[in-house]
């Protein structure tokens, strides 16, 4: 869909897709309800604009790393490291995370604007005076777009686009753009396109003056209305088509799961906040070479690999898409076929970034999405990743906490403890103890015991081998003719 509302066959361009270079972006953070925060500056109504000096001159050489590493105004390392009881990021911390999203989308930040209000403005979210101020910043910095770290209503988006001399995107649009950039498989592309169209449909009235809103008065029933309704019908037809294709994908996944369930191999799913290190952990445990990146949402398509636990049981490990604060509902709905792997898993590995100052908030956001997927009650192992980035004192503190497994997916530290924790959390096909007496000539049986069980003792009695073992109940049951007694 282009800016005039006419449907196109290709998705909206990404932040690095105009003119072949990185787009220059003005970031707008919005702090609502500031009177309750106890922030003197906020209560005084301070509004700040911070311009990145090294990016002020258009055409100057851009440091590729500078935009992502520029400090967000008002955020100190000391304050960010303080423990907080709230599970919500404040406006400055949210804006710091928003910078990472912009970097993942291929944009470069040239200016940061923060607006603090007690309540949102229905017309523009930030107020007409602030809109004029941002327009001046856009003109002086020759910015390509304005990005809001907040969702905009169709009316707000229309009013802002009519006033500002560049494109306007809100938080959800930016996340959808990143998903579109990282979708590699046909399934991922279908899911992203569905989410984009479902988000766009109610906002068609805000896409340019030619698509003026419908009304019942004189002069409101002209070509604009016909064009708008045509665009709506085209999008609705495309949405229906995408849903049918994704239903086919879901059926294929269901058949694959049914084939897997015919052989009792449980599934363990990795879940967690985006950029927590899930793909790196997946590679460490499986030896796979899936993409691991510091960019947000580098993984969209689920990956399945078999791993062997200390009990010699085989399980399937699934790598899934990362979650984020205020994950757009359209994405949760569109990716339901992918997230069904989470619903079918027996155990969830909640991978958390132990080095993040916002660990509590990120944990709360992941649990919110798990609850929406109706899998919050599943057995879950808390995996504290990236301990290699912590100091010795902090690492020791993690080791003393119960119910959590500290690991470093990069170095491999803690992998044995994690595999043992997975072993203990699995309830299907439990580990049982048994004594077996097997004739030495039954080489295939002895080989199966060696491969699939833990042998505690082995004694030879003439032509027989007496074994004390621990192994999966399914395998022990198949060897019932050799069993003496259960421990």
Quick structural summary:
The protein has 487 residues and is α/β, with parallel strands linked by helices. The protein has helices at residues 40-43, 66-69, 77-81, 91-104, 128-141, 154-163, 171-182, 186-200, 223-262, 278-286, 329-334, 336-344, 359-372, 392-399, 415-425, 443-452, 473-478, and strands at residues 24-32, 48-51, 108-117, 145-148, 167-169, 267-272, 303-308, 314-319, 347-353, 380-385, 404-406, 431-439, 454-461, 464-472, 483-486.
Provide structural commentary.
The radius of gyration is 27 Å and the shape is elongated. A six-stranded mixed beta sheet has the order 7-8-6-9-10-11, sandwiched between helices. Strands 2-3-1-4-5 form a five-stranded mixed beta sheet, sandwiched between helices. The protein has a four-stranded antiparallel beta sheet with strand order 13-14-12-15. Helix 13 (359-372) links the parallel strand 9 and strand 10 (380-385). It is an alpha/beta fold and 487 residues long. The chain contains 17 helices and 15 strands. Helix 7 packs antiparallel against helix 8 (186-200) and helix 8 packs antiparallel against helix 9 (223-262). The protein has three domains: 24-182, Rossmann fold (3-Layer(aba) Sandwich), CATH 3.40.50; 264-425, P-loop containing nucleotide triphosphate hydrolases (Rossmann fold), CATH 3.40.50.300; 431-486, 2-Layer Sandwich (Alpha-Beta Plaits), CATH 3.30.70. The protein has helices at 40-43, 66-69, 77-81, 91-104, 128-141, 154-163, 171-182, 186-200, 223-262, 278-286, 329-334, 336-344, 359-372, 392-399, 415-425, 443-452, 473-478; strands at residues 24-32, 48-51, 108-117, 145-148, 167-169, 267-272, 303-308, 314-319, 347-353, 380-385, 404-406, 431-439, 454-461, 464-472, 483-486.
């Amino acid at each position: 869909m282009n800016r005039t509302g006419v449907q196109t066959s290709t998705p909206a361009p990404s932040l690095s897709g105009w003119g072949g270079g990185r787009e220059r972006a003005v970031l707008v953070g919005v702090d609502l309800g500031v009177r309750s925060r106890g922030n003197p500056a906020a209560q005084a109504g301070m509004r700040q604009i911070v311009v990145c000096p090294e990016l002020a001159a258009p055409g100057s050489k851009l440091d590729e790393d500078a935009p992502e590493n520029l400090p967000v105004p008002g955020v100190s390392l000391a304050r960010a490291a303080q423990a907080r009881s709230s599970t919500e990021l404040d406006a400055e911390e949210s804006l710091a995370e928003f910078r990472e999203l912009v970097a993942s989308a291929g944009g470069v930040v040239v200016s940061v604007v923060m607006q603090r209000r007690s309540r949102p403005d229905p017309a523009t979210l930030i107020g007409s005076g602030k809109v004029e101020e941002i327009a001046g910043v856009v003109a002086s910095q020759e910015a390509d777009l304005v990005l809001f770290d907040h969702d905009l209503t169709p009316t707000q988006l229309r009013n802002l686009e009519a006033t500002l001399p560049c494109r306007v995107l809100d938080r959800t649009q930016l996340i959808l753009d990143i998903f579109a950039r990282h979708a590699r498989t046909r399934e991922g592309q279908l899911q992203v396109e569905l989410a984009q169209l479902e988000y766009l449909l109610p906002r068609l009235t805000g896409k340019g003056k030619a698509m003026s809103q419908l009304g019942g008065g004189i002069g409101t029933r002209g070509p604009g209305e016909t064009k708008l309704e045509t665009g709506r019908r085209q999008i609705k037809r495309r949405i229906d088509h995408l849903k049918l294709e994704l239903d086919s994908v879901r059926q294929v996944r269901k058949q694959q799961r049914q084939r897997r369930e015919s052989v009792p191999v449980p599934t363990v799913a990795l879940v967690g906040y985006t950029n927590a290190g899930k793909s790196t952990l997946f590679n460490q445990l499986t030896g796979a070479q899936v993409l691991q990146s510091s960019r947000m949402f580098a993984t969209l398509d689920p990956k399945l690999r078999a791993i062997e636990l200390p009990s010699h049981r085989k399980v399937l490990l699934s790598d899934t898409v990362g979650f984020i604060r205020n994950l757009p509902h359209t994405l949760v709905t569109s990716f339901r076929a992918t997230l069904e792997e989470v619903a079918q898993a027996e155990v969830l590995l909640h991978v958390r970034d132990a080095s993040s100052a916002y660990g509590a908030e990120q944990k709360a956001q992941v649990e919110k999405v798990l609850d929406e997927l109706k899998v919050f009650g599943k057995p879950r192992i808390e995996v504290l990743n990236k301990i290699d980035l912590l100091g010795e004192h902090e690492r020791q503190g993690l080791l003393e906490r119960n119910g959590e497994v500290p690991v470093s997916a990069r170095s491999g530290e803690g992998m044995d403890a994690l595999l043992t924790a997975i072993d203990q959390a699995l309830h299907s096909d439990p580990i049982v103890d048994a004594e077996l007496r097997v004739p030495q000539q039954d080489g295939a049986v002895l080989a199966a015991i060696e491969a699939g069980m833990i042998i505690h003792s082995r004694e030879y009695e003439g032509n027989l081998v007496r074994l004390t073992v621990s192994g999966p109940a399914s395998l022990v049951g198949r060897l019932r003719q050799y069993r003496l007694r259960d421990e």
